[in-house]
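Can anyone check this?
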Amino acid sequence: MKHSLRSGIMKETFFALIRAGLWGTPTEAALFDGLTADHWQTLYRLAQTQTLLAVTFDGVSTLPAPLQPPRPLLLQWAAQTLQIEQANERLDRMVERLHTLYTGAGLHPVLLKGQGMAACYRLPRHRQCGDIDVYLGKDGQPQANRLLLQAGAHSSGEDSDKHASYELDGVHIENHRILGRMNHPLAHRRFVRLVREWYPQGAEMRIGMPTPPPAFNAVYILQHAFGHFLSSGIGLRQLCDWCCLLRTHRDDIDPARLCKDLKALGLLRAARAFGYVAVHYLGLPPECLPFDTADCRRLGDELMQEILATGNFGQYDRRVTPRPKGYWRGKWHTFCRALQRDRRLFAYAPWEALFHPLTLIKGSAAAQIMRYKRQVDEGTRPS
């Protein structure tokens, strides 16, 4: 049997590994009969670009030994999985450290995405982790920034009007003054109201730091993923996060309220496309969604093709030129790329796509103002 990405069979094997890894179900072994070393290298690279190395390794582990990858690649895959486990342990310790640091100063930190989503996975330490995002509100963020600097952190990454970025003991940390932003002004006001409904008293202590309640996260994780999808692209990990959240907290989420909130934010059509991918590619039980996805095949399949083309946060998109060096040249490159995507992805959330360029312009200007204020506040503004 010949296997190729063009024929679609390699995609079938890839998604079979993901489903087995996510849900702990046996992999469809017949799909892997006859795979060559080159085929397995292709699957490994796909898992790499979609930041699902550990999840797919769990799927590989369910296969009979004769159908598993060649031993050198299997050992490499296992080593990468071990590194992901160790990285998660390091971030978990940092989350607890930050919670102690911030609450000791009377702040109300809330952990966003990341390790909070990992807790929804069957094997939490197999979610490929990145940085730590903490929401503290507009009043709490400046103090949290000072606390991090006093603890030995240093500024890292580009400034943003939403968050300040730091590095502490090898861990990237973002202190958020704004939890998230919708492009459409009216939708953004509605999103802010959703945050005010639960912050800070409604945050739930499930891991080393409080997290948003599941009902809000069901909206927020989708909203955040779609924002990146519109700007540059996302990997399948973002959809896996949403799937695991919806399945783990199915009883904590009111389906009617979720649909109402998504519609109010102009994201219901996008959510239904994401839901189609979740059910038909990733194996999420349909009853975990508050809506039917049967008529979303076209948008869902296009979404899937886009995700495979761009990889994690658009880092592997071969259709665009590399971002040039220099702050403003880089910003212009990002802006032009976003305009192209806005036109192409308009159907998913028309109002979000329409207002997206304005958000980028306002965000760049606000980031410069926030950068100046933070340097003054931290005493790092050059004289």
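Reply from J.R.: I decoded it. Residues 1-6 have pLDDT under 50 and may be disordered.
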